[in-house]
Write a structure and sequence with these properties.
mainly alpha; about 90% helix; about 0% strand; 2 helices; about 100 residues
């Protein structure tokens, strides 16, 4: 259940990364037009830098989500291994009634 929630967060992060890349591409095109027209590009450049930093942070957030997914996957695997190990031990060492 918890892992499903992390997968949902991962899907949202992936979508936001795609949207951020689109914004960056649009901002670069806008910046190129401003440069061609000889306009001041300082604000457009500052916005581009903010968008790129945001994208970087989104990638970091996505990596954190992937770590959480992996941790829960490992936790589930270790639980299932423990459960199977206990069953095998009980079958191989039947206890005599006291």
């Amino acid at each position: 259940m918890v892992r499903k929630i992390w997968y949902r967060h991962l899907a949202i992060a992936d979508r936001l990364i795609v949207e951020a890349r689109d914004c960056i591409d649009n901002q670069r095109q806008h910046l190129a037009v401003l440069e061609q027209d000889g306009e001041d590009t300082s604000r457009a450049t500052a916005l581009l830098n903010l968008l790129e930093e945001t994208l970087h942070l989104m990638h970091c957030h996505r990596a954190t989500i992937l770590e959480k997914v992996a941790a829960y996957k490992n936790l589930e695997l270790s639980k299932s291994t423990d459960e199977r190990g206990d069953d095998l031990e009980e079958r191989s060492n039947p206890r005599s009634p006291s």
